[in-house]
Amino acid sequence: MRDALAYEWLRIRTVRSTYWLTGIALAFSVAVAIAVSWAVRVTIGTPDAPSAQDLGEVGPWLGTQFARAGAPHFVAYVLAMLGILSWGHEYRHGMIRATLTSLSSRTAVWVAKYVVVLAWVAVVVTVGFLLSVLVGWLFLSGKGVDVFGATTFAALGRAVLSAVLLSSLAMAFTGLVRNQTAALVALFLWPLAIENVITLIFYIVPGLRDHADVTRFLPFAAGGRINEDSVFAAGDTLFGNPIAWVGGVVIFGGLSLALMLASQALFRRRDA
What residues does each domain of the chain span? Predict the structure, then answer.
């Protein structure tokens, strides 16, 4: 296992795409934080100033690039591409044969890829989140905005969790299809197009309109709830409407786990 971890750690550090995607993720985080923090600063004290409730959400909004408010978590999607490439490069360039020749245990190879890639993703998401919030603090210091409150750090935990689950799903799907192009297309096509089309059909077709609320169980729709501000209130349930963030973890995490188990089983049986 130690050799497999060392092998994967060397691989991820010597591939240029690792640094390109990491740089894009961090640069985007900081750029959004600068733009939003400046806009909030210049509006405070004017009729267009954010409400007190909105100001309390500035920290989580900046850290998640507004995934907290329902936007797709851009940084998580960028870093999920690292997971896709971790398997995709192996199969595209035929390196999987060298990997399996150097390391006899396929289970160790599989586990090492997930451990190293997901650790990298978690660290980058954390760094990007904290840098964004730090930018907010620098711009809004003295303006009565608490960007480092308990809500912000709770949002950090959810951001890391959702990014890790998304990368896990992306890696597992790539391992199943063994085609990085197909996996990259699916990573963006399914949440941004297919799920929206399915939801639209439920809302415009008369026979389905009364059942439109079932679309909240679509995997990426549910996964998006992980970052959103959805806490249990009186009478709420795990899979209510809207789904609580814990319910999102169960649905999206369950799909990720199922694909991971399938990919691991096939990886052990398939020819390289």
Answer: 2-269
